[in-house]
Design goal:
308 residues, mainly alpha, 2 domains, two-stranded antiparallel sheet, 61% helix, 6% strand, Rhomboid-like_sf, transmembrane, membrane, transmembrane helix
Length: 308
């Protein structure tokens, strides 16, 4: 997979879209607007209905990306405002996850992550449609693709802390573990409900309902598979890891390099472990030289390159 991605990047890397997450968020917000105005419009004309696609509605292969985000204008005023607040947090988290992954993986590979998730969902919808269940309408899995970015982000920043409910500090790795458990539960529960519904009868109503449950399970599996493929394919090569370890050993031999005996300092903000003992420092394998960054700037800094 690593060699395949390298070959693709050499051939098509120049076509990669920088800051792709910005356009992903625009599509996500457009879907939210559609959901607020008329959520039925999406499912009637835009969703990934393979039966409609085979009858000429090709646009559905793209417009399914405009899936409504989950809150609607039909909720109570309090519920609607809470939905708006959570939607705002979601958008900001998508920016954080997407830009962090693009900085770590590179623009082309992050583009491929989103594109492959898009294609995998279409393939999954086609398989369900051609199955004995003949599932026409596929519950869009792109929301799960977007959220699967969180797992990659957590693996790269396990000790970063989020404020749960804006009060309780919790490390990202524990949130990712809880999210993974919930995803597994959703898969098992959706498959269970699907098979139980099928056992009740073979009429159109039962098969349609069962198909909806199965499509949810498949969409989550597709998102997790997409994450695992890109995580293992984009880990640092042994050579890069060895270079980073050598730089770290060389640097750590220089004790008391900074003021007051500090041994770590962010090359961007200048903070050390003495300023905040919860800061996590890492070297950047893409920078030329011994440049160390705190967790806040590891994935957002501009790489230092020395040209001959």
């Amino acid at each position: 997979m690593e060699k395949f991605l390298n070959a693709l990047e050499r051939k098509f890397g120049r076509y990669a879209v920088p800051d792709l997450i910005k356009y992903v968020v625009i599509i996500y917000c457009a879907g939210a607007v559609i959901g607020l105005v008329n959520p039925y419009f999406y499912y009637q004309y835009l969703s990934l209905n393979m039966n409609a696609v085979f009858h000429g509605q090709i646009w559905r292969l793209f417009t399914f990306l405009l899936e409504p985000s989950g809150f609607s204008s039909g909720s109570s005023m309090g519920g609607f405002l809470i939905g708006i607040i959570f939607f705002f947090f979601q958008v900001n988290l998508f920016f954080l996850f997407g830009r962090s992954l693009e900085a770590a993986w590179g623009t082309f590979r992050f583009n491929m992550y989103i594109v492959s998730g898009f294609l995998f969902n279409i393939i999954a919808a086609l398989i369900l449609y051609l199955s004995p269940l003949h599932v026409s309408n596929y519950d869009s899995g792109m929301q799960y693709i977007y959220w699967s970015m969180f797992f990659a982000f957590a693996l790269m920043n396990p000790d970063m802390e989020f404020l749960l409910y804006a009060v309780l500090p919790i490390k990202v790795k524990w949130l990712a573990l809880l999210d993974a458990v919930y995803m597994v539960y959703q898969i098992i529960n959706s498959l269970y409900l699907g098979f139980r519904t099928l056992a009740q009868g073979a009429s159109v109503i039962y098969t349609t309902t069962a198909g909806a449950y199965f499509s949810i399970a498949i969409a989550i599996i597709v998102a997790m598979a997409n994450f695992l493929i890109y995580f293992f394919a984009t880990r640092q090569s042994p050579r890069a890891r060895m270079q980073q370890k050598r730089r770290k050993r060389s640097f750590e031999r220089q004790t008391n390099q900074y003021a007051n005996g500090a041994r770590h300092r962010c090359a961007v903000c200048g903070r050390t472990e003495l300023d905040d003992d919860s800061l996590d420092f890492r070297y950047c394998s893409k920078c030329d030289g011994n440049y160390e960054y705190c967790s806040d700037h590891l994935f957002t800094h501009q790489h230092v390159k020395k040209f001959m």
